[in-house]
Amino acid sequence: MNISSTQHEDVVLVEFSDPESFNAFETKTFAALEDAVTDAADAGARALVLAGAGRAFSSGADVGTFVSGVKDKNSGVMMTYTVSAAHSLLRTLRSGPPVVAAINGVAAGAALGIACACDLRLSATTATFVSGFVRIGATPDSSVSYYLPRLVGMGRAAEMLLQNRKVTADEAFAWGLVAEVVEQEALLDRALTIAKELAAGPQQALRRTRCLLDTSCTDTLETHLDREADVIIEASRGAEFAEGVVAFTKKRAPIFPR
Known about the structure:
By secondary structure, the protein is of the alpha/beta class. It is built from 11 helices and 10 strands.
């Protein structure tokens, strides 16, 4: 798997490519992708775009790598390493700058989870979405069972996870899985445009809002009201809030601190 990072102003496009496998992830791929995301954040990227090159976003984890483990009866050990690497990537994605997924083709298995863990998802008309786990006698991982019900509802998530239903780009938009569907040739430009808008925004406020979204489905109302109060009071003491309020009152676009 080849992973490239390209700077576009304050945005870094992280693109992965292995056309023969439809961009399937091996254990080392998750780690390499995490390194690319970390390096981009450390270099000052204010937003990221994740994209698969060629005809797929990603077909998910490379199932072929588990064949030897099944034969040798140590597939549990192999899965431990793979899941650990995938979940480490997901934690890094959720702790860094905003991330837009540009989904050009199939997003399956672990790749579906990675897409769901991004802050926004854009889809080409050619994209499809499928869990794939039950097809090989496996259960969901890579945050699929966490984010998918939050995005599409429990009933739709059950269809995708229990029936292994493949979802088209138009269905994904109707269900709320993706924010937009565009022609494939316009996908990256549109994703970069949105990422640049996020990059120009208040980074601390965006990350705090992400945390509120992540906890909203598990908090009680009282707990979440307390959490909202704590977060917005903290935000009100910062430079982003000061600039936002002044810009609003002066009827100009805010220029948030870097």
